[in-house]
């Protein structure tokens, strides 16, 4: 028998070869995705491609039972990873095998798979969970609305943790299948297209599909008793609108507004390019909130948006978000202007189209009606901070920035920017700086100073800057700030545009009902 002599160095090398080179580098994924405003939002270490949610909801008790199947790809060697969920978890499986799990904080679900997960490999995660969403409070607020006949998930910047496990940040968008079983006579509304509906043993199951990337906060669920209208656009896109049966005096105004969804979307296609998703619509549940939200393909509207009559302007705002906010989403929540400044400006363009005041007249009115010492001017739309993320300045001053841009580069380039941006960035994410760079590329002009003035300086732009942007020449403030003296010709105060009242009535779209107390 021949014995081979192995020297120590060879032995050591063979032992090293027996251990995977990356074994020592398996680490937990970060508990946050890195958002500057909300460090606990989202998670690191993986990227989700699809959510399959199979749910059962009992309206009388608010009990939600769910099985979520999550398809993801690892972005690092993972020993552990987090999901965001606030409800009770019963079981987690990773690639078919039971995984250990624990909870921490308000909504962190820490999952330890049976074996570590190598980088760049597909992973299937199944989470079985249950709970009453209305009993879950995070930072003192909830994204779940109880209604007389059910419940609704719709909130910004968070709503997913109340009803499904996720990587809860716009940076990780995915496609969705949402299947919901509810008692017969009750409906379940979600995003996208209703694929099928069937009843068995007193329960009806609704199967919805949203086939384009969707941020988790844009996923919605509404269970209740609705009057539903359906139609198709000229291009064959399914349209579904839903109205709670108990909207009372607001019912007519809500319908008169939302039934114009197809018309508004077709007009917006002329401004922003082809509609980016597979369905269209809106819904109005019987909730007590006052805001609206751009939930993908099917915006959520509170009945109070229609308390003073029909208001198509709010429909314009939420549908504009389908391009600006839904298809092109924020890179981080500090970039909220790339959502809200454009949605508000779309309302100004609708006013211009309807002959109720041009965007220029609305810009003049906003600039002139806010004194220099108004706190409005201290908010920086380009980086407002988490406490001011939904401040009215992000909307109105944000739209002023776009009118200044329009005046600087001219209508041809301006509307080329509005249409080209959501095409080039479709289904992705972007920073404010990305838009500035894009506008410079299209127009061939340096624009950093203009955007700095209107988005980042915590003061009212002085008369020279405003005049250069095509604003102050028509305002009383211009005469005062420019030092108009005796004998100077009086400068007329801008007249309030006819559309202003309806636009201002939609200001509560930014009041998300939780006083911005996210608890993150």
TrEMBL record:
EC nos: 3.4.11.2
Keyword set, alphabetical order: Aminopeptidase, Hydrolase, Metal-binding, Metalloprotease, Protease, Signal, Zinc
Needed cofactors: Zn(2+)
Superkingdom assignment: Bacteria
Top-level class of the enzyme under EC nomenclature: hydrolase
InterPro entries, alphabetized: Aminopeptidase_N-like_N, Aminopeptidase_N-like_N_sf, Peptidase_M1, Peptidase_M1_aminopeptidases, Peptidase_M1_dom, Peptidase_M4/M1_CTD_sf
Entry GO MF terms: aminopeptidase activity
Catalytic activity: Release of an N-terminal amino acid, Xaa-|-Yaa- from a peptide, amide or arylamide. Xaa is preferably Ala, but may be most amino acids including Pro (slow action). When a terminal hydrophobic residue is followed by a prolyl residue, the two may be released as an intact Xaa-Pro dipeptide
Keyword Signal included in the entry's annotation: yes
Domain Aminopeptidase N-like N-terminal: 49-218
Ranges of residues in domain Peptidase M1 membrane alanine aminopeptidase: 310-454
Family to which the UniProt record says this protein belongs: Belongs to the peptidase M1 family.
PANTHER family listed in its UniProt record: AMINOPEPTIDASE N (PTHR11533:SF297), PROTEASE M1 ZINC METALLOPROTEASE (PTHR11533)
Record protein name field: Aminopeptidase N
Organism: Streptomyces solicathayae
